[in-house]
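Homework help board

Subject: predicted structure for assignment chain

Our instructor gave us this sequence and asked us to write out the predicted structure in token form, then describe one feature. I got the tokens but I'm not sure how to describe them. Can anyone check?
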Amino acid sequence: MAQKGILVEYQRSSNNKILESEDPTLVYANAEQTVITSRRIVNGEAKTPYEVFVVKRPSNAYYKLTQITAQQQIATIDSSAINKQKLEITTESKKILGYTCYRARTTVNSNSIDIWYTTELKIKGGPSDLGQNLGFVLEVVRNGNSAVTASKIEHLKTWPQALSLPANLTYVDDLTYKDLLWKSRFIQIPIFKNEKISFSDDSKSDSILRFAQGTVIVKKVKIPKIAAGQNVFVQLTEKSKGDAYDRTGSVFIIPQDQHLSFLDGMQQGMNTLPLYDNGNGKKYQGVVRTANYTPILELMRFFTPFGVSQFNYLKLKGKTWQDSVLYRQDISELASAISDREVYVGTFIGNYDKNGHEVSLELTVHPGFDNKHALKKLLPIFNTTNVMEMGGQEYGTMFDKEKGLEVTFELKEDASNVQLRYVTTGHGGWGNGDEFVPKTNSLFLNGSALFSYTPWRNDCGSYRLSNPASGNFSNGLSSSDLSRSNWCPGTVTYPIFIDIGRLKAGKHTVRVQIPQGESEGTSFSSWNVSGVLVYD
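My token output:
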């Protein structure tokens, strides 16, 4: 019976060490086509999504097929991917599986690629699109240390019928194909889509709760189970719809684990929540953990730039303004607070503009690489960010006294590998205000010094193109260039993780002390600090 083609199996290696856990690539090839697949796909063991590639001869049309789910398959055709390759052919040779192979070189995205091909098989093919026109590629080496190498060649007497292109494929353009493939690899949890956050009661929605004159939006969302080792991200897109200023923003969830929640204060008045008293005569609503109340759990602190999108008409030579700002942050350590439950997710932007800002918010959950460790346990203990600013919640000015912020909490069980996830930003937007004056944050645990540092950002000028309405000074600087107390207009403020170690079950006290600046007339300084215990 006449030969119907060949089957070549490839192994992956790194630094000359075979990666045994990798799924071997299988390449079926004859005069009419090359099919690039894998052993697990052929055996029906591959998890979706997975890709198969087909090269049709003699046109070199390159088909990419993805099995998104058991029921959904997409495909695209690239007619030029193979024909447009620029390869440097050399005379260097070596033997692979008894065949004389020659070396060709190219670069892909700054990676140096060596392609070892043979013409002795009288068939064209290979484990990728690279070098398909040269002959049969038996090895591809990236940057000298990562290789895909043929380990076995089998001559076929029949061509497997399963390798034929399905007749009912859904074809899309290449960019759409890449987007659908990318999105199929993780879970998207949409929360808000083009929602307004403004100082106005005009916006209405059946599924979205609005508080504080429309400056806070909240939605109840069902979150799927998050497995150990999976990565969780929060992503927010913001653009101005009328507000020209840099504003404090926060994405948060409202814990429902105790008798009282922050939602009670939103619905019934902030003074219904536990009040914190530092001795300065003010009462701070809902900022510390008590025996029957858990403060809001902050997922991400962000700051709007000066008027991105709405004020892009304010042209400056040599500057092309961004049309929106994307904030994206890894919050995997907080996964247990949202996994497999319905949660209230909120977003706040403090502003006094009737058109305000427009935001879109989503969570994404991605496969991880370490599934040996359980999700972290969490205990939110304080949050002075006054997300209900326009609903009467007091600013975080409790640091004007030496006591600062002090909270006693109770651990129900011994905890190991304890960290305090701490986020801090200073505010007071005039020359002597704490926004522009470095201030040391000192933290104490059970009366002993725990950690001390001075939060400061001096990279704010990097975000100039997100700040079209930023004021420009006579010294050549823009307001958005100026260094600030741990934030810049148009950025996320990331948390720091303060190692504590082991904590015994029982009561413990944390105190945060900051030398808050004095008020000047109606101008005052404040600090937004949030703290969550993260532990095993």
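Reply (TA_rk): Your tokens look well-formed. For the description, you could write something like this. The chain has three helices and 33 strands. That's the kind of observation they're looking for.
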